[in-house]
Amino acid sequence: MDLLLLGGTKFLGKHIAETALRRGHRVTLFHRGLTNPGLFPDAEHITGDRDGGLDALAGRRWDAVVDTSGYVPRVVRQSARLLAERADHYTFISSVSVYADFSVLDIAEGAPLLSLEDPAEENVAAHYGALKASCEEEVRSAFGERALVIRPGLIVGPDDPTDRFTYWPWRFAQGGDVLVPGSHGRGIQFIDVRDLAEWTLRMTEARAGGDYNATQPAGNVTMDDLVQACRNVASVDSNPIWAEETFLHEHGAAEWTELPLWVSAKMNWPGFMAINVKRAVEAGLSFRPLSDTAMDTLVWCRRLRPEGEWKAGLDAEKERQLLRLLSSGK
């Protein structure tokens, strides 16, 4: 298969490219040449900019396109319209953040989506979900039934630039008391980047169409499962100290950022970690053991994670302060 990847040098795109090359596909990567430009010497690299710099793609043809780097509808419209007559199939990586109401459980693909009040809005940080939903519409408008839209939950594993999962195996590997938010049995959802990459490529090979949520099935993994997996792969003794949500809120601990994978009851988003993935599972989506994801992420973190400040996780001094307050009963 002649495969065009829009992106392909970072996280999910990188793993899709690795998988495609391993499976014998002819891979073209379109990117700006800024991130990991030396990757994949066996692939064709075309340097350009999605926003107004697609000329290098004109006059070419591919069997399929996988778009892992679309965030702004105006920009996605350019690639989708240009490639509609140059590719047979278009896979767009969206997000479960497109859904309008996380106060309900068991959100399936037909649930209402967010929309932009201002169609010209392009602030991704402020309107990520609504922008992704509009990007989906641009792809469907250009490709119709030839479009596959995949809506992952939190993507985790080696090469994760966000630190939102990596923090946990890394922190338990530091040993000692580890502050953990909420209850032991709180359900969490995420998907290993390698599982997502493999399944995305299989669906693209099959020219599948339609919309699919893609994350762990609701109820498969609890926060305690993650804690135990992280303790098991750590090479030192560690002790989880569970803190109630009221305590954490009272003392200024930030959910999702300082304590990744914590979405509190206060948010009234029970559906955010209870997405329905029945359709994807029936289409062959499978999941490796949690222990493998925790171990491989820790190994990557120790060997290859770029140096610099953590983008998620508690500062060590703040964690010590919270643990002292918790032990004192304050």
Automatic annotation (TrEMBL):
| InterPro entries linked | Epimerase_deHydtase, Lipid_A_modif_metabolic_enz, NAD(P)-bd_dom_sf
Show where the NAD-dependent epimerase/dehydratase domain sits: 86-213
Identify the domain of life.
Bacteria
One Pfam family assigned to this protein is Epimerase
PANTHER family attached here? BIFUNCTIONAL POLYMYXIN RESISTANCE PROTEIN ARNA (PTHR43245), UDP-D-APIOSE_UDP-D-XYLOSE SYNTHASE 2 (PTHR43245:SF13)
| Protein name per Swiss-Prot or TrEMBL | 2'-hydroxyisoflavone reductase
